[in-house]
Task: structure prediction
Amino acid sequence: MTELRWHPLLREWVGVAAHRQNRPQMPKDCCPFCPGSGRVPDHYDTILYPNDFPAFSPDNPPFEDYPGLFHSTGARGSCDVVIYHPGHTMLPSQMPAEHWRKVVDLWCERSAQLYANPDIACVCIFENTGEAVGVTMPHPHGQIYAFPFTPPLIERELHSAREYYDANHACLYCRLLAEELSAAKRIVLESPDFVAFVPFHARWPGEMQIYPRKHLGDLNALSDTEKNDLAAIVKAVRLKYDNLWGFAIPLMMMVRQRPVRGHSPYFHLHIEFYPIQRSPTKLKYLAGVESGTGTFLNDTSAEEKAAEFRGTIPKSVNFSED
Ligand SMILES: [Zn+2]
Ligand SMILES: [Zn+2]
Result:
């Protein structure tokens, strides 16, 4: 069981889950996500799997938000694994767009359930991929964490978006996207409904973001066509990462959706990618400056990285013609 401890200096929650230290390194011949393991159906395309060592669980005591110097509370929420594909060694970049669409559908379905749960404040869909990110399981998968509070980075983003909206009666993200499109030099891929770019303020080397062109708050606001288009651009971005240097780059992928509670018309659905490979042979570590001050040092320029990505296959989202 996990408990949440309040950090009175940083004003944020720390999850303490001692049992997670005991997570097994899976032996190579035993993968619970593989068909035939007895843990998943023998035939599936993409499925939800309960996290065996959940940081947040519906069985934990309720979360009570009254910060005190030595306050701890229950980590009620949920942690699901999204198994993308039955193939153990399938790379996410190699999954067809039609298959990514099934993953998008599972994201939507689980999000809708969690948005209806009064214990949940924030639904975070993400993926860690690559041993350098600490992934013990090569089988292609992502995760969905449902938090009983809004995590601090998301809270900060919401605060900025709210302030901009109140002052300008407009969406901060829509404005950033319009500026990026007009500057053009950091744009990597465009599709009818989405744009992928390296943001001006990129913190990670080769960070990319995907924004829907239309102002939408969450995945379930997407139309059927838009979901297909999202699947296609996610696939294309993943291919660019893996084709850049000819190997699968360790990265994190975060899907940002509107908060569960309240009305937040200023929030704009988007996906962020944090690659941790800063050159073909060097990794980016969150060292003293990043970890100790929160200030990122990025030794690549967004404009140069965008140009590199533009020159990498695929050259377009529907790339059969490339
Ligand atoms: Zn497997
Ligand atoms: Zn917007």
